[in-house]
Design brief:
This protein is of the alpha/beta class and about 375 residues long. The protein has 13 helices and 11 strands. The N terminus is likely disordered.
């Protein structure tokens, strides 16, 4: 059954259809968003949204209590808005006393992570980005309120440098045994590839092959993961001249990873909230049956804090991809993002308008924990 599902979702015909989404367009930078706060006029609600709306959403049937085996190779032969700079900002180690923080976390982690799964991940996502270089907290400290942990981040030599390969230089900071420990207790771990200053636009098959092989090497080094989070295209490095080739190669890369690790291997991306070309790439992956969800980021720009802005942004993304393939990117106890009250207000509006919305995530695990997991426990209760 797994192999049949993969063939249906990753076929050559689906991939060919997906590439129709990769047209021209521009932007996706901070300047684009700062110039206008009318999210409804972004490309997702116009050209991209029109394309995506006619494409059925391909999902796998929900299975109660399923444990993903995505990290184990299968025998299948199938084949920023404000830029996303926030995803590489170094988080300062908290100097505050952590007694109350640990008490809050322990109360939160006394429960177990349960629920049905779609595509190997929980049907409702509460995720957080764990920044590997910040050792003020271990990955095993992440409360069980969070059912998805984004392991941030695989590195290259810098934006569009190197041969398309990625490395994981944080083996000492985040030991493989700890990564597997959180997976064994029910939390999914998704490796983020790239981030601000670490972009790479794939335009040929040699680069893409290097990408796939290096990710496989990292998976072996870590001991297994549940998916890959592509953040390699941010900061305006895609343009009208390379977006078509980029869509072709990213679809191929995702196909190879699914062929190796199975149909439940997650393919996600923290797209820029109003990035036209970001949206084109997400639609291409969706149309190929490969996108688990896109998670547009709503932090690192003060305009996101306005009443209704994030909710309107999610309306636009839901038209483009379908609400079940959208996760909302927010911030937790982070100085350059929406406050907890902003998050709860916008989430209530979003959930009422989009009952099938996939979930939400925060930047970051460490900032949330430094605040005593107040964001995590509050948003877990609100998740529904």
């Amino acid at each position: 059954m797994k192999r049949r599902l993969f063939l249906l979702s990753g076929s050559a015909s689906a991939a060919a259809a997906a590439l129709t989404a990769c047209g021209g367009g521009g932007g996706g930078t901070a300047a684009d968003v700062a110039a206008s706060t009318d999210v409804a006029n972004t490309a997702a609600g116009t050209t991209v949204g029109t394309t995506a709306a006619s494409t059925p959403v391909a999902t796998t049937a929900a299975t109660a209590g399923t444990t993903s085996t995505a990290a184990t190779p299968t025998t299948s032969t199938s084949t920023s808005t404000p830029t996303q700079a926030s995803n590489t900002q170094t988080q300062a180690s908290t100097s505050q006393t952590q007694t109350s923080t640990q008490t809050t976390q322990q109360a939160s982690t006394s429960t177990t992570t349960t629920g049905s799964t779609i595509g190997g991940l929980p049907s409702k996502i509460l995720g957080c980005y764990y920044t590997a270089w910040d050792t003020s907290y271990r990955i095993t400290d992440v409360p069980l309120d969070f059912n998805v942990i984004y392991l941030f981040n695989a590195q290259n030599g810098g934006t569009n440098t190197g041969d398309g390969s990625w490395t994981w230089p944080f083996a000492s900071e985040v030991p493989a045994a700890q990564i597997q420990q959180v997976r064994q207790r029910g939390q999914k771990v998704i490796l983020t590839v790239g981030g601000a200053g670490l972009g790479f636009v794939y335009t040929n098959r040699t680069q893409s092959t290097n990408c796939v092989n290096s990710i496989k090497s990292i998976v072996s080094q870590i001991g297994g993961i549940d998916g890959v989070d592509f953040n390699n295209y941010e900061a305006g490095i895609m343009n009208s001249g390379n977006v078509s080739a980029m869509c072709t190669e990213m679809v191929w890369i995702a196909q190879q990873l699914r062929a190796t690790y199975g149909p439940n291997f997650a393919i996600t991306s923290p797209a820029g909230a109003a990035g036209t070309l970001d949206e084109n790439l997400m639609v291409a992956l969706k149309n190929a049956g490969l996108l688990t969800y896109a998670a547009p980021q709503h932090y690192d720009w003060s305009g996101f804090n306005a009443v209704g802005y994030i909710a309107n942004s999610v309306d636009t993304w839901s038209r483009a991809l379908g609400e079940s393939q959208v996760v909302v990117g927010l911030s937790a106890n982070y100085s350059n993002g929406p406050s907890l009250s902003d998050c709860t207000r916008e989430w209530a509006t979003i959930k009422a308008a989009h009952p099938n919305i996939r979930g939400l995530f925060c930047w970051s695990a460490q900032t949330n924990m430094s605040g005593g997991n107040v964001w995590g426990s509050t948003m877990k209760a609100a998740l529904g």
